[in-house]
Aspartate-semialdehyde dehydrogenase
Amino acid sequence: MHSYQIGILGATGAVGQKFIRLLEDHPWFTITKLGASKRSAGKKYKQAVHWVEKTELPAAVADITVSECHSSNFGEVDFVFSGLDSSVAGDIEQEFASAGIPVISNAKNYRMHDQVPLLVPEVNPGHAELISSQHFDSDGKGWIVTNPNCVSVPLSMSLKPLDEAFGIDSVVVTSMQSVSGAGYPGVPSLDIIANVVPYIGGEESKVQTEATKLLGQVKGNTTEFRSFPIQATAVRVPTIEGHLLSVSVKLKNPPSDLDEAKKAFAEWQNPIADLGLPSSPRQPVRLYEENRYPQPRLHADREGGMQTAVGRLREGTVMDLGYVTMAHNTIRGAAGGAILNGELLAAKGYFES
Amino acid sequence: MHSYQIGILGATGAVGQKFIRLLEDHPWFTITKLGASKRSAGKKYKQAVHWVEKTELPAAVADITVSECHSSNFGEVDFVFSGLDSSVAGDIEQEFASAGIPVISNAKNYRMHDQVPLLVPEVNPGHAELISSQHFDSDGKGWIVTNPNCVSVPLSMSLKPLDEAFGIDSVVVTSMQSVSGAGYPGVPSLDIIANVVPYIGGEESKVQTEATKLLGQVKGNTTEFRSFPIQATAVRVPTIEGHLLSVSVKLKNPPSDLDEAKKAFAEWQNPIADLGLPSSPRQPVRLYEENRYPQPRLHADREGGMQTAVGRLREGTVMDLGYVTMAHNTIRGAAGGAILNGELLAAKGYFES
Amino acid sequence: MHSYQIGILGATGAVGQKFIRLLEDHPWFTITKLGASKRSAGKKYKQAVHWVEKTELPAAVADITVSECHSSNFGEVDFVFSGLDSSVAGDIEQEFASAGIPVISNAKNYRMHDQVPLLVPEVNPGHAELISSQHFDSDGKGWIVTNPNCVSVPLSMSLKPLDEAFGIDSVVVTSMQSVSGAGYPGVPSLDIIANVVPYIGGEESKVQTEATKLLGQVKGNTTEFRSFPIQATAVRVPTIEGHLLSVSVKLKNPPSDLDEAKKAFAEWQNPIADLGLPSSPRQPVRLYEENRYPQPRLHADREGGMQTAVGRLREGTVMDLGYVTMAHNTIRGAAGGAILNGELLAAKGYFES
Amino acid sequence: MHSYQIGILGATGAVGQKFIRLLEDHPWFTITKLGASKRSAGKKYKQAVHWVEKTELPAAVADITVSECHSSNFGEVDFVFSGLDSSVAGDIEQEFASAGIPVISNAKNYRMHDQVPLLVPEVNPGHAELISSQHFDSDGKGWIVTNPNCVSVPLSMSLKPLDEAFGIDSVVVTSMQSVSGAGYPGVPSLDIIANVVPYIGGEESKVQTEATKLLGQVKGNTTEFRSFPIQATAVRVPTIEGHLLSVSVKLKNPPSDLDEAKKAFAEWQNPIADLGLPSSPRQPVRLYEENRYPQPRLHADREGGMQTAVGRLREGTVMDLGYVTMAHNTIRGAAGGAILNGELLAAKGYFES
């Protein structure tokens, strides 16, 4: 049986709140420490937070006293989840890792670090082995694992079955991203009600890069990225949760017809299906046949927000296939993805000392 | 001086209302006849219509008695604009043309007809010459001209400068379309508030085809389509007016750098600039430099809703360039585009008898 | 133990779908028959329905063959829930009741019938006794019970504690109603995105009347309505689920201060608390202290969508108190309310033969 | 002929931008100075501002160098419009007035000042006479005039005809306010998309007070407020522009029927109709007969955004009448209202020295 005490870094932010909500009744992980900025430190969590989740603030967490994000305040935890803003995540996560505390991070800072796994359990569970190459602390007890950007999650998960079957040659993607992706307060309503904003700062470079690491191979103590190009356009639309991607993909060995492409999704094997991870969706990648599906408002919550939906799979005229894909950006694409990473690493024994 | 009496077919529908609003103070065209279904015929327009425009129903039109859409009721008009639904436009437009009444149509029915020009004045004004090949009536007085689908308008207008400068090789486009594109009542609010619907019936095939006719050449009595492929994904987003397109384009002779691409837009010559058409925008294609522009809610109304906006022009990783483009779907992409077609044909003398 | 076979009338409509979703794992009620219009009859439910719920169509229902809504097709059921449109509910519900099949209806048709209880279990559970006065069939086995309009539910539930403590003198209410209240397709998106429509046909008269029956007394074989006036304004706002009401209330014996008013809510006793009804919320009326609460998008789903929320309780300048109240309009205010009525009547033995 | 040089205080904010847009081609007033915070001072306006208006930044203003808001920088102007935030408006406006520069302010700080007119030209033009009682500077050349809160504008304008005809006894109002009322960045989209927030800090006390000053009488050197109570609930809804109010009103001498109430609106005389003010709407208060009107998105822009719309006028059950009213909150309710105040004062000779 797994039983761990964990801490949340960036506990008062939007991602931090999602961690707390998703972990409320978690069978393996119990929140015992909360970290936030100096402004919140010393307050009870219920007083420090502007709670924006739809569910009640969990009673077990409400009265925990918030600490500053320093390893000395997190002595008893087995590891931490980090929902820190990237402006501070770099230093803080390094400090924790150096002090021997594993960090499962949602922040972007270490995603491109040579020895840090960028991990989606259904896509590249084996990349976890990079952990042993890390040198944040001298005895290897502290390390960092990251999950990708919220767009790269459904992109890599939907590309994975196609890559295994046909090989990816190149990808053109337009991501229509919900406002929750910008955190809170985030996107001003005057900007986005009845509107589309055709730019999200820094987003496209992440989308163009991360999937090539996720679909890459660990070679020695680093990851060999894939060489296929991704051309990305990221826009903001007035949805709440769920990023919808329009994807066109050229394949190395294209299927002979659409049925063969559908079969690639139907026959794809989830590599973590047998691990019994609590947050693992039964069907990580679901192919909808209905033309009008998937839709962010209707389907982002399916399987606890952990399922990647694919729809409108069809033959292309410029590239081989076209499809749309969608995942819950703050669950599958952020806190939920990190928790699944934590579960994978727990199942593999990375937290045993 | 141009002075014409005109009729509106489909006058009570969303496109018909837009015709009436846009023609309220038109210097050349005066509405004298309104055509609608049998249900509305015999009523005064103000009683027959569920007016959804933001401006007042024009007083000069309010008391016109609506007729059924048959040429015998439109004896005195010089030509008609058709905002008919495609389910009835085929027969009715043919009947008018056969009776010697020119039809400037927004409907899709004759867009692919060999002798019917699919016309965007700034893109292919010369295609008007196809009119003389038509045989709807024996003496050639009745004919049909169409404008393209609301997505094909900004797509063709934004591709035109690039085509002239570099030659189009292939295009991948995702169009994020506003609810007004579906008419009234159109899209149920339960479907689209805080949502994206990744499918619009019949839309993608139009987008994949029409621009290749628009950018084609008239050869003898038909149009030679261009051969470049367009791969389209059409989705519905909760905007009111303005379709925003994310475009990736491969070019035959790509520019050496981004500045050269920008120069293609800056130096492109509007072929109808000198005609003094009342609805002609000063700047038909505007390139925005600001990352966050253009946006449907902020910019769709610029230049009376007749301007096509381009933004986020940048080098691509899969195809040569990426950009977004946007136009007002019910003005530039429908009624306003048809009116500009009418003005072009008036200026060229097509309505002289 | 309660175990009943039930039918759903109007099964393909928006309310019917909600019944099916809410009853998916119901411990007492099992759906065995589905009724809809002639157009759907004979089809499997999954083929007849345009499913708009966020969850999957329950497998146990998907393959049930839909029947026309006639009692002869519903022989084996213990009772039916009716989500019929009011245009047909009058005749059909009467036919079922006359045939000896109890009808728990969400339709408005019989709400004002002298012998038909208009029932909210927490407000007027005793009104169920009116059932015995009904004469739809000669042996009294068939009868009709209704739940109120979706606005009258939170209005009556929030007024109940105040009425018990202070007596209602008069009420002014503005209801801001979500689009799901109009069913599907319902409100056109062009009408409501970024807009408010200050009129909902027929709504205000229901709001002004129903609460005075709910808070009234059964006297003999009829209900004595209360005499206090309600002045209602009903507007449509672009929310999905949850009607929010702004209420001003004058009281017969006003509290001496705000705390006394709060105490009325805190100390109010839920009359069905001890019955163990499966859909009964632990806290039927929750008073929020936070200024910004309740909000439709955040709180409509609390307690399975069965809780009425109250907030912003404060002293008034014209009337004694002001507050806002909100309930999930398609659960608490429609299908969920009807199910709770069914549970109440089951617990009281009304379905024993 | 009137010709004045004017300055804008708070020029980079949302209200300041609206002043600049509305004054672009103003026949009387020319913007020559712009004031903003120290952060913007010294920059050209086009560099200092994050322009959020739909129209282009006016070229004549784009290159004006922004100054700090001190009278010494505004030597040549005849007067200033203030769009300052209330956190700084108190001191700055006083400093300008003390230096002999008249201030037409949209800020709330001096609205309740005894000698400062709270002015809506169609409601209480005579209140301008209070100016002569002010002592901000010793020779009376500097003074302050304010316009009311954006809700109080349509409330007072719609109550005025009823007050003249029947006398106001008491008012209950729920205001459904658009996001532009909170400025930019203002309301986070996560709070308001598909939602209603039942609280706007500080708003209700303004709504409950200002109309009683506007409808009051100048007596000597102060305004005698009216004594009728207003009970207000202010909520935020996801509209862009236009606050819609649901109003219930009790009258001292109620009309005998609804027609008499309609006649009060029809026969009301606009007291400034003959002054020829450039921003004055032809019909300041328009009564819509259509049940579904007025709507913020359709009608807020009517008459340049300066018209107050009234609709759904009907008899009440608790109070004598019910109606809805709506005005463009950032034009009629803010910058446009202030400009009309400036025009009124110009026409009355207050800027002659």
Observations:
- Residues 44 and 269 of chain B are 45 Å apart (CA to CA).
- Chain B has two domains: 4-149+335-347, 152-328.
- The longest strand of chain B covers residues 168-177.
- Residues 331-347 of chain B form the longest helix (17 residues).
